[in-house]
Write a structure and sequence with these properties.
811 residues, alpha+beta, Beta-galactosidase, Chain A, domain 5, Maltose phosphorylase, domain 3, ten-stranded antiparallel beta sheet, 41 strands, 27% helix, globular, transferase, GH65_N, 6-hairpin_glycosidase_sf, glycosyltransferase activity
């Protein structure tokens, strides 16, 4: 069942009913100011950090769902309605929501009045613009009262939701004609405030929630809207809001536009210490003046459209697969950009108050983003590396505003160091910018301990070398990629727990998955050493990698698949010896991607076991059989009910690992089959089952053991976005950046007769046409560059500004 449709020409998803299975959202902003907006105008806004600089409130556990947001009310006589249906839920005569690239348009009509609420964050500015277009379609004059309403968060979202005894006394606002300033915390910090305004003279206003909604009222039926005017309330503590009321007269056929804006203003450091409670409004006035007219707003919208057009043109596909084109060219890269900005911090499933930016998460996000804006990827790599410790380990998460490690989450995830190598190597393959390795980067953000980024990578690599267990496999620590597989969480003595101390004492649980990572990214590290003429170090690295690879082929092999791990007592996890959790997806994907067992047949056997034991119609489950009871020696993984999340759910994040692995073995049909099962455009028809947005990936789908098999959760912010784009662009379509240039090595379904990719790479533009009239799955027969045949499939580097024509024939 569908609840809308794709409009590829406008690069939009058009939702045709407000009653979607869950709120379907969009992200506005791509720099510092961000808003989340749902198909019924729910959502919230923040500046850079969803916890520390939250501008508006959002109640995740609220019922009814998704009532807080960017709401506009229209009062037409006794009828009150919203362009996006919520929160009044007045039935509309027509409705549509258009989620586009960095903007959302809500279109509603009631009693002969049409209203379009257009929301976007302009490039280069810290504000959200909401433009309302009203049109009278009747033959009679319409007298309308329009109200725009936001509820301010008192900046720190955690404190705002818990410290009521203080916050009920601290809320402060200031009002000018058509402008409301929210300055809570300005008295203390004196450097930032929010501004809510309209470009149209207002009839009335409110700044207290009690006055606008009523003490026992709410957004669904605000007393001010019902009365047809606001009271002019000034907030002194309690709950500050911004409510602007404008009376509008529309002649028959007349159309009017009204702009509402929500902005963040931060004074420069030298102006920070002004008098308590006195705000400098000069920057707010300048911001408001930038969008005073429709022409200015139109120009901002065009600049936003041009911005996204430039970003997405970096990689463009034309093939006979409409859905594949749609995902690669529009939605997939768009989600990669959003995920790069947000990591896992702020969505409709993550409140933005705890996780911040993930070390592992952000490194993986680079894989799908680095080709879009390499300069921002460079900056992110240096931010991530600065949270590393001198021994090569790292904080698992850090806060985006301070860029400091998140001590609440801590350390001990032993896969983290290797992801830094993965992200940096991807950047170097894309850009050839070797200067990044010379950048001085602190350890634990301590400038006195700064070393080159290359030294950080060296310590990342050596962390695994110095943390091997009794089977020669890497120690898992607190967890590896699967945060819920906690194999060191108990001891033989009740009430005691292991402390993660090192390889020679304490926990000895080992990870076959990290072994696969170490082989894959260890080889990439050795290649970096080669390019830096560090021959001895490259040789030593490969020797260490070879040792772990042999351990994976012996102690890590279970006979028909790779084991997952060894627990703290040396017992195998993910083995036929286990009653439950006999086979896991992660090591099969990562080990085969690393080439482990490719020549011996073990890789092919492992993938065959995945297809036979883990595959379902909605994707590959994480493990089988599911755990039916809690097992202390495994930790949190067994705390979930069977089929959900880490307990045998379909983790979309690592499904592309299996697709990549199949491509490594040349299995184009199977690689594409795995890709399609979790790809949004291919499963749009089951939206009533899937429930999350049909235009972006979700983190997980309930597995076959779950009562809600096929239901997704945790959409938008997931490593699925980067890994699946990495898979489809580099493994399936096979356009692969290397340290020495682009390599073309497709692995496609035999039914795909060919395709063309336009790829910007290191300043040049490559038009790559792939001919598969031979109907093969894998294999390049010939390559011609600008009409001249070349040996192999590595394209020679072209000078900046060049346009290169490449013809590839498969066979």
């Amino acid at each position: 069942m569908k609840f809308g449709h794709f409009d590829d020409a406008r690069k939009e998803y058009v939702i045709t009913t407000p009653r979607t299975p869950l709120p379907w959202i969009n992200y506005l902003g791509s720099e510092d100011f961000f808003s989340l907006v749902s198909n019924t105008a729910g959502g919230y806004s923040f500046y850079r950090d969803a916890r520390m600089r939250r501008l508006t409130r959002y109640r995740y556990n609220s019922s009814p769902l998704d009532m807080d947001g960017h709401h506009i009310y229209i009062k037409d006589g006794d009828t009150v309605w919203n362009p996006g249906w919520q929160p009044t839920k007045t039935e509309l005569d027509s409705y549509a929501c258009r989620h586009g690239l960095g903007y959302t348009i809500l279109e509603g009509e009631k009693n002969g009045v049409s209203a379009a609420q257009e929301l976007f964050v302009p490039t280069g500015d810290a504000c959200e613009l909401d433009r309302l277009t009203l049109k009278n379609k009747t033959n009679a004059t319409k007298e309308l009262d329009v109200f725009s309403y936001v509820e301010f968060c008192l900046w720190d979202a955690i404190d705002d939701s818990s410290n009521f005894q203080r916050n009920f006394s601290t809320g402060e606002v200031e009002v000018e004609p058509a402008i409301i300033y929210h300055k809570t915390e300005y008295r203390e910090r004196r450097n930032h405030y929010a501004v809510f305004w309209s470009n149209t003279p207002v009839t009335s206003f409110d700044t207290t929630r009690d006055a606008f909604c009523g003490v026992y009222g709410g957004p669904a039926d605000p007393q001010a809207v019902r009365a047809g005017h606001c009271s002019g309330s000034i907030a002194h503590g309690w709950a500050p809001v911004g409510a602007l009321h404008i009376h509008v007269t529309l002649a028959p056929g007349e159309e009017k536009k009204i702009l509402f804006g929500l902005g963040y203003i931060e004074n420069p450091q030298e102006e920070k210490f002004t008098a308590p409670g006195v705000i400098n409004k000069e920057r707010a006035h300048a911001m408001i003046a930038r969008y005073a007219t429709d022409a200015q707003v139109d120009a901002a919208r065009k600049a936003l459209a041009d911005h996204w057009e430039a970003l997405l043109s970096t990689y463009h596909l034309e093939s006979g697969e409409e859905k594949l084109n749609r995902m690669v060219n529009i939605w997939h890269q768009y989600q990669c950009m959003v995920t790069f900005n947000m990591s896992r911090s702020a969505s409709y499933f993550e409140s933005g108050t705890g996780r911040g930016m993930g070390f592992r998460d952000s490194c993986q996000d680079l894989l799908g983003f680095v080709h879009i804006i390499p300069s921002r990827a460079r900056e992110r790599i240096l931010d991530i590396a600065a949270t590393q410790f001198e021994d090569g380990s790292a904080y698992h998460q850090y806060q985006p505003l301070t860029k400091k490690g998140n001590r609440d989450i801590g350390t001990g995830f032993n896969d983290d160091p290797l992801w830094l190598i993965a992200g940096t190597a991807a950047y170097l393959r894309e850009t050839g910018d070797w200067s990044i390795l010379d950048e001085q980067v602190p350890f634990d953000n301590d400038a006195s301990k700064a070393q080159s980024l290359m030294e950080h990578l060296r310590r990342s690599f050596n962390f695994t070398v110095t943390h091997l267990g009794p089977h020669g496999l890497p120690l898992i620590g607190r967890a590896d990629w699967n945060d819920c597989l906690n194999l060191n969480c108990f001891s033989e003595h009740p009430g005691e727990s292991f402390q993660i101390t090192g390889p020679s004492e304490g926990p000895v649980a080992e990870s076959v998955f990290i072994a696969g990572m170490f082989v894959k990214y260890g080889h990439e590290y050795a290649e970096l050493c080669d390019h830096l003429n560090l021959a001895d170090e490259a040789a030593a690295a490969r020797k260490a990698v070879d040792g772990v690879e042999q351990a994976a082929l012996t102690s890590g092999w279970d006979g028909a698949w790779f084991r997952r791990a060894y627990d703290a007592f040396g017992k195998p996890v993910g083995s036929k010896e286990c009653t439950e959790g006999q086979i896991f997806i992660e090591p099969q994907g990562m080990c085969v991607m690393a080439g482990i067992g490719k020549e011996t047949g073990q890789a092919a056997q492992a993938l065959k076991s995945v297809e036979e034991r883990l595959d379902t119609k909605y994707g590959v489950v994480l493990h089988q059989p599911a755990y039916t009871s809690y097992q202390l020696n495994l930790g949190e993984i067994s705390s979930y009910p069977p089929g959900y999340k880490e307990n045998a759910g379909i983790f979309c994040h690592n499904n592309p690992w299996i697709s990549c692995a199949e491509a490594v073995l040349g299995h184009g049909d199977r690689a594409f089959e795995v890709y399609r099962k979790t790809c949004p455009a291919y499963i749009e028809d089951i939206s009533e089952i899937h429930r999350t947005e049909p235009y972006v990936y979700s983190q997980m789908v309930a597995g076959k053991d779950a009562p809600t098999f096929g239901e997704a959760k945790n959409s938008w912010l997931t490593g699925t976005a980067a890994w699946t784009f990495f898979n489809v662009s580099q493994y399936i379509l096979g356009i692969q950046p290397t340290l020495d240039g682009l390599k073309v090595d497709p692995c496609i379904p035999h039914t795909l007769g060919g395709f063309t990719v336009t790829r910007r790479y290191r300043g040049a533009t490559y038009h790559i046409a792939v001919d598969n009239t031979a109907a093969v799955q894998y294999g390049v027969k010939s390559v011609a560059v600008d009409g001249k045949p070349i040996e192999g499939s590595l394209l020679p580097l072209a000078p900046e500004g060049a346009v290169v024509e490449v013809q590839v024939t498969m066979g």
